[in-house]
Amino acid sequence: MPSLTAAASAAPANPLPPAPINAWQAFDGTRSTGRTRHLLSLDDFEAAARRALPRPIFGYVAGAAEDNRALADNRQAFDELALVPRVLRNVAQRDQGVTLFGTRYASPFGIAPMGIAALSAYRGDVVLARAAAAAGIPAVQSGSSLIRLEEVVAAAPGTWFQAYLPGTPERIAPLLQRVAAAGVQTLVVTVDIPVAGNRENNLRAGFSTPLRPSLRLAWDGLVRPRWLAGTLLRTLARHGMPHFENSFAERGAPILSARVQRDFAGREHFDWAHIAQIRRQWHGPLVVKGILSPHDAALARQHGVDGIVVSNHGGRQLDGAVAPLRMLPAIAEQAGSAMVVMLDGGIRRGTDVAKALALGAQAVFVGRPFNYAAAVDGEAGVAAAIGLLRAELDRNLAMLGATCCAELGPQHLVDRRAPWPLAHATASPPFDNPTGDTRP
Questions:
Q1: CB of 340 closer than 8 Å to CB of 100
Q2: 81 forms bridges with which residues in the sheet?
Q3: 336 carries a ligand binding annotation
Q4: Which of 2, 70, 204, 273 has its CA 20 to 30 A from that of 319?
Q5: Does the N-terminal peptide bond of residue 294 adopt cis geometry, omega within 30 degrees of 0?
Q6: Coiled-coil stretches, from where to where (predicted)?
C-alpha cells in the first residue's frame, strides 16, 4: 500500500515566472487573438459561456441556492469597500507572487474546485489544471469531477485535490491512499456539505443529479452544436459515459445513474474527529475549505490544519450565509501565523483580489469565471482569463503604491458605508521623512 508521505516528500517544482506585464497595453489597443480576443474582463466570459453551453449546463455552473442571496452578497461585500491609493512610491519593480506551503506561485489567485467541469469543456479538469500550471498558479481538482485524478495530476503535476470525504473511516483511508499514490501534495477537504443545498435553480434550468434524459435535454444540446460535437460526443466516443471518478478509492457512479445520490449522501456524521484522523494519515499540506466562523478557524488550528479556505461554497449551500469577505479579518486573526488563510467567492476583478489580500488572505480562488473561460475556448480561454486577472492586479498594485502583495493592508481600504472621515481629512498628518519611503 503506498505511503501517504510519498506525495508530501516529493519536492514541489516552483512554477516558472510569468511573462512581463505591459501595464500600458490598455492604452495602445493591443488585443489577444483567437476566440477570446473580444473578451476584456472575467464577466465577459460569462456572457460568452451562456451562448456556448446548453441551458442546463450553464444553469448548473451559474446557479446558487434558493434565492441567490448568498451569491449576491459575495459580490456586495467587495462593492462596499473602496480603495485608498498611495502615490510617489516607486513601484517600478512589482512582483505579485506568493508562497503557499513552500511553493512559489506567480500570482495570489488560483482556480477553485468545480464539479463536473468536463461537461463544460472537453476534459475540463485537465484543461483547467494545465492552464493553471502553465501560468504558475494553483488549481484544485474537485472530488465530484468526471476525470480520474491520476490523469489530471499526470497532465499538471502540483495540482491540489479537493475531497468530499464520507463520514465513514473505512472509506476515508483508501481514498487518501489513492490520492497520495497519484502524487497529490496538497489535500483540500470541503466541510460545508453535511447535506445538499437546495439548488432549485438547477431544476429550473433543467439540470438534475443524476442527469435524466428527456426531449428538452436533447433539444438543449442540439441547439449548441459546437458543445454537442466538441464536448459531449467527443467525450462519449473517446472515453465512454462519464462517471464520478474521485468520490472514493474506487470508481463512482455514471452521471445518469440513480446511484449518484447514494454516493453523495452520508456526510451528516462528518466531524472534527474525522479531521483528526485525516491529519494523522495525511502528511502533506492539509487544507479545510468551507470555514466561515472564527470558532471553526480556531478548531482547525487546534487540529493541526495547515490552511483554510474562507468560503460559502459560492452561495450554493446555505442561502443567506455570510459572505466570506465579511468574516475574513476575524478568521485571519484566529489563524495567526499557524495557518495559510485563503478565500473564495465573488472574485471578479484584480481589485477584488487586492481587497481580500488587504483584509488578511494570502491567496484567493476563482471558480465560475474560469469554468466559463474553459467552455468558451478550452485551455486557451482559461489562459486568457488568467492573463486578464493578472494584468488587472498588476495595475492595481502600482496604483495602490505597492510593489508586492505583502504590502497590502487595511490602510488601503475604506468602508463605503462608514461616516466620512472629515475630521481626519482636515488634520495635517506628520511629515518627518520627506525624502524616504514610509511603507506601508
A1: yes
A2: 415
A3: no
A4: 273
A5: no
A6: none
Report whether 220 belongs to an annotated binding site.
Answer: no
Residue found under cell 496538497? 186
Confidence class for position 8, pLDDT limits 50, 70, 90: very low
Residue 348 has pLDDT above 60, yes or no: yes
Name the grid cell of 357.
489580500
Mean pLDDT, residues 399-427: 86
Which of the following is catalytic: 243, 274, 313, 412? 313
Quick one: how far is CA 210 from the chain centroid?
24
pLDDT at position 267: 81
Query: Does 295 qualify as catalytic in the annotation?
Result: no
Residue 275 and residue 302: Cα distance in Å, rounded? Answer: 11
113 is in an annotated binding site: yes
Q: How confident is the model at residue 73 (pLDDT cuts 50, 70, 90)?
A: very high
Phi, psi at 381, each rounded to 5°: -65, -40
Q: Is 289 a known ligand-binding residue?
A: yes
- Give the C-alpha separation, 355 to 388, whole Å: 17
Q: What is the mean pLDDT of residues 253-276?
A: 82
- Lookup: cell for 115: 464539479
Domains and CATH numbers, the chain: 35-399 (3.20.20.70)
Strand spans (E) along 137-285? 140-141, 160-163, 187-190
CA neighbor of 104 nearest in space, from 169, 13, 187, 194: 13
Prediction pTM value: 0.92
C-alpha cell at 220: 438543449
**Which amino acid would we find at residue 297?**
A
Strands (E), 54-107: 81-83, 98-100, 103-105
Enclosing H/E stretch for 189: strand 187-190
Is 79 annotated in a binding site? The answer is no
Ligand-binding site membership of 316 (annotated) = yes
